[in-house]
């Protein structure tokens, strides 16, 4: 390697030296370039150099952008720098692969690093097209890619749901799930004796007799618990290489005859791999859209829509304990097979569980295929709509690759598990057995499920909580009725926006839901009714209970409440210095008699906690451990003990606080008890504004009225003491009004009337220094004070009112007739003018 590097350096130095002798750009180069022979030679040399650079970069696994002949020097420099960066990145990748591999084994370097071979087996035409893409205009390339994606999306649009096209039933009710299993294949008898039904981490065990054991939860519970892994699967075997996809036959199963033929094929093999494609956006419970099955010789794609009710016959090979079923990430696939077809799995090997046991850096199917099969899977159709029919060729290829390499990966994982530890393989089958025994259960609606499903950005009040709860329930009802997912009916962010804003009209509802979902537009009236009901709720602040907070945190992974004794002590914030607990090692007793035990039994007195309790220490020197040959420094120990005595631990602070709190609570209880004894057992009288003012005692605020300075006359107090208790209750004492101002005793209207009367009765003569005797108004006051005599209309003479009024004076007009006639004439003139303005024609010339 060193010789090759030295030769490369010498060759590069020679290349640079020779290139300096060539004509440089400028007047000389333009002169030489004017000759046809020189021009032709330079173009030929440039083409040869371009071909050499492309060949060199391709041999080391780099696709270089080769400039066109006659390009500028800057363009050549950019292409060379880009190729160098790619080479450095490829070298770093290779270095990481070599570093992770074992030193004693032969390292398998990926093919795309050493030979630059396309990982997805591209042809030469595809490579040339990709190279043209780099040199083409990026805008044109992006536009072409956009058109291709749009055409693909148009081909995969599902115009009608398969549930309606193929009459696929869906049970979205709240009733428990009923198994669709009609024929139970490979059934065995029940076990005799007692059966272990529970065994948790704490060691608690519960037992049940076989007579009372039922199969309500899982039809194959007895078979799975009885299952024993065949000896062939626990031994090392041959690692059979998979066939290329081009040479492997593919069978599309969409009829009953083909399904029966597939069942016969699966019953005749020893192992097969399985994978499912699922869709849950346009279905409440979900829908299995495709089943991929691969054997060592053939691949099968099962279209379940036309033969939905007949797929249950595959339960015979799937439940056969002598046939191995290989899955990758089977936790959901097994439940979907139970739910839709009544197919149950016995004898399972999950490659995901095996990768976990081997502690791989990644656990995806793409990494599994790349590591063992040296194939890079294209996962762009992982989230595609698999309900579309017919399937595109790219989707068919994606579905085949999911199961085609699983059996070869199973062989490789089995050998790695056996090589590392034979017990690991048994552990993998044990965990796979737990996956097989899981029964499918329908989701149960939780009225407060949004607490764990939605992440809130604000605190809910009573109205928002009512709206969110009602909308969450309405969404679930519509989703069950229409067989749609709740997210399709009303997404979470729109649900939260409606509950937060509480719109008052239809426009506000549409503004919160953009783009507008179909079912929101169809049921706008129901949503509007919920908004109006929420606005009528009393506005209060909603506080979550401790249980609701813990449930929300557990679902989001914030905390975990399942702890053992040691974990709870380690995570606890409480100080344990007040107890005899040894924080150094816990309360674990070590048995010295056991061989190979290096830990000696340690007494609590020798722990660090004993230092905090100096009263229990009998001999201070017995606690101190020093090196051999050194004396004990008692001064430092005394200084340390004094500092520890002065230090107050958090627990001591907590104890003092609790004692002080108990003391204050005891004082409050004694005070309440004393007041209760003083008041006696008399019933308390409640007053309202309907009661008469006499029945209520006047109460005044001492701070506002200065009641503490008010004193009753001594005579009044003596009279009240002489009165009987009944008389005192009838005439309660009242404070002297002279001690209070008018503002405190009179209302605003009374004060205003008093001020107006004061202005009228003001005596100006006092201000001017004059006598008030000459004032005629003052003279009349004595007459006004006389009592007014009552007038008797029955004895009065009414004849004066019956005579006609006669007065010859011209100004006499008792009823103001002249004024009325004058105003009437003015009114008539104004009416004529207004009529002329409205269009009345005046014919006078």
Automatic annotation (TrEMBL):
Q: Where does the record place Basic residues bias? A: 817-830
> Which key words are in the record?
Exonuclease, Exosome, Hydrolase, Nuclease, Nucleus, rRNA processing
Q: Name one GO cellular component term.
A: nucleolus
Q: Which domain of life is it from?
A: Eukaryota
Note the Pfam families from the entry. Answer: DNA_pol_A_exo1, HRDC, PMC2NT
Q: Where is the composition biased (Basic and acidic residues)?
A: 726-746, 775-788, 803-816
Compartments reported by the entry: Nucleus
Residue segments, region Disordered = 711-845
Q: Which GO terms describe its molecular function?
A: 3'-5'-RNA exonuclease activity; nucleotide binding; single-stranded RNA binding
Q: Which GO terms describe its biological process?
A: exonucleolytic trimming to generate mature 3'-end of 5.8S rRNA from tricistronic rRNA transcript (SSU-rRNA, 5.8S rRNA, LSU-rRNA); histone mRNA catabolic process; nuclear polyadenylation-dependent antisense transcript catabolic process; nuclear polyadenylation-dependent CUT catabolic process; nuclear polyadenylation-dependent rRNA catabolic process; nuclear polyadenylation-dependent snoRNA catabolic process; nuclear polyadenylation-dependent snRNA catabolic process; poly(A)-dependent snoRNA 3'-end processing
Q: Which SUPFAM superfamilies match?
A: HRDC-like, Ribonuclease H-like
Q: Which ranges carry the HRDC domain?
A: 461-541
In terms of InterPro entries, this protein maps to: 3'-5'_exonuclease_dom (IPR002562), Exosome-assoc_fac_Rrp6_N (IPR012588), HRDC-like_sf (IPR010997), HRDC_dom (IPR002121), HRDC_dom_sf (IPR044876), RNaseH-like_sf (IPR012337), RNaseH_sf (IPR036397), Rrp6-like (IPR045092)
Family, according to the entry, reads as follows: Belongs to the exosome component 10/RRP6 family.
Q: What PANTHER family has UniProt attached to this entry?
A: EXOSOME COMPONENT 10, POLYMYOSITIS/SCLERODERMA AUTOANTIGEN-RELATED
Listed name of the protein: Exosome complex component 10 homolog
Organism, scientific name: Caenorhabditis tropicalis
């Amino acid at each position: 390697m060193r010789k090759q590097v030295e030769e490369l350096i010498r060759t590069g130095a020679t290349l640079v030296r020779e290139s300096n002798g060539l004509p440089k750009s400028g007047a000389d180069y333009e002169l030489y370039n004017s000759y046809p022979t020189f021009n032709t030679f330079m173009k030929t040399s440039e083409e040869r150099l371009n071909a050499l650079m492309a060949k060199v970069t391709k041999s080391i696994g780099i696709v270089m952008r080769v400039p066109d002949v006659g390009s500028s020097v800057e363009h050549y420099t950019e292409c060379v720098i880009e190729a160098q960066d790619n080479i450095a990145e490829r070298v770093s990748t290779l270095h990481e692969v070599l570093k992770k591999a074992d030193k004693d084994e032969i390292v398998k370097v990926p093919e795309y690093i050493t030979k630059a071979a396309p990982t997805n087996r591209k042809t030469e035409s595809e490579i040339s097209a990709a190279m043209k893409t780099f040199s083409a205009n990026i805008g044109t390339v992006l536009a072409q890619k956009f058109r291709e994606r749009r055409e693909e999306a148009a081909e995969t649009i599902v115009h009608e749901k398969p549930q309606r096209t193929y009459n696929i039933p869906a049970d979205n009710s709240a009733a428990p799930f009923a198994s669709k299993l009609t024929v139970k294949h490979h059934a065995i008898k029940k076990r005799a004796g007692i059966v272990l039904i529970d065994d948790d981490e704490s060691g608690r065990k519960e037992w049940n007799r076989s007579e009372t054991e039922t199969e309500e939860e899982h039809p194959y519970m007895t078979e799975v618990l009885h299952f024993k892994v065949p000896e062939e699967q626990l031994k090392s075997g041959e690692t059979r290489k998979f066939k290329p996809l081009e040479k492997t036959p593919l069978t599309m199963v969409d009829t009953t005859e083909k399904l029966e033929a597939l069942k016969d094929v699966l019953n005749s093999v020893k192992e097969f791999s399985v994978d499912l494609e699922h869709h849950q956006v346009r279905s409440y419970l979900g829908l299995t859209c495709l089943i991929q099955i691969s054997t060592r010789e053939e691949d099968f794609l099962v279209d379940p829509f036309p033969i939905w009710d007949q797929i249950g016959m595959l339960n015979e090979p799937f439940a056969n304990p002598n046939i191995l079923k290989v899955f990758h990430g089977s936790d959901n696939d097994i439940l979907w097979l139970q739910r839709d077809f009544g197919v149950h799995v016995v004898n399972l090997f999950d490659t995901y569980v095996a990768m976990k046991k081997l502690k791989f850096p990644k656990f995806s199917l793409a990494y599994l295929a790349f590591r063992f099969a040296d194939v890079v899977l294209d996962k762009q159709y992982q989230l595609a709509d698999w309900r579309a029919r017919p399937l595109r060729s790219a989707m068919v290829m994606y579905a085949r690759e999911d199961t085609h390499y699983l059996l070869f990966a199973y062989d490789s994982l089995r050998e790695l598990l056996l090589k590392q530890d034979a017990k690991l393989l048994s552990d993998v089958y044990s965990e796979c057995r737990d996956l097989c025994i899981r029964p499918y259960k329908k989701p149960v609606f939780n009225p407060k499920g949004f607490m764990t499903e939605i992440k809130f950005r604000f605190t809910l009040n009573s109205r928002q909580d009512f709206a969110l709860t009602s909308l969450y329930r309405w969404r679930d009802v519509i989703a069950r009725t229409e067989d749609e997912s709740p997210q399709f009916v009303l997404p979470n962010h729109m649900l939260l926006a409606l509950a937060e804003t509480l719109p008052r009209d239809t426009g506000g509802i549409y503004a919160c839901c953009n783009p507008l979902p179909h079912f929101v537009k169809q049921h706008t009236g129901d949503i509007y009714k919920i908004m109006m009901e929420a606005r009528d709720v009393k506005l209060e602040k909603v506080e979550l209970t401790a249980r609701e907070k813990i449930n929300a945190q557990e679902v989001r992974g914030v905390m975990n409440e399942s702890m053992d004794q040691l974990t709870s002590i380690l995570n606890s914030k409480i100080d344990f210095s007040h107890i005899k607990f040894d924080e150094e090692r816990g309360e674990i007793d070590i048995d010295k008699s056991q061989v190979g035990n290096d830990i000696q039994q340690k007494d609590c007195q020798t722990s660090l906690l004993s230092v905090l309790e100096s009263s229990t220490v009998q001999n201070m020197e017995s606690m101190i451990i020093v090196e051999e040959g050194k004396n004990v420094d008692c001064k430092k120990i005394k200084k340390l003990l004094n500092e520890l005595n002065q230090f107050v631990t958090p627990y001591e602070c907590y104890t003092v606080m609790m004692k002080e709190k108990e003391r204050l609570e005891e004082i409050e209880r004694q005070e309440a008890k004393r007041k209760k004894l003083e008041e006696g057992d008399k019933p308390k009288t409640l007053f309202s504004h309907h009661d008469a003012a006499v029945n209520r005692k006047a109460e005044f605020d001492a701070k506002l009225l200065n009641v503490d300075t008010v004193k009753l006359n001594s005579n009044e107090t003596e009279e009240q003491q002489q009165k009987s208790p009944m008389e005192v209750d009838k005439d309660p004492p009242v404070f002297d009004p002279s001690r209070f101002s008018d503002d405190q005793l009179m209302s605003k209207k009374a004060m205003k009337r008093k001020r107006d009367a004061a202005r009228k009765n003001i005596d100006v003569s006092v201000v001017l220094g004059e006598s008030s005797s000459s004032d005629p108004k003052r003279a009349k006051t004595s007459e006004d004070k006389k009592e007014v005599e009552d007038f008797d209309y029955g004895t009065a003479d009414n004849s004066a009112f019956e005579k006609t009024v006669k007065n010859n004076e011209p100004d006499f007009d008792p009823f103001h007739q002249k004024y009325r006639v004058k105003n009437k004439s003015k009114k008539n003139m104004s009416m004529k003018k207004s009529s002329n303005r409205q269009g009345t024609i005046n014919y006078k010339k």
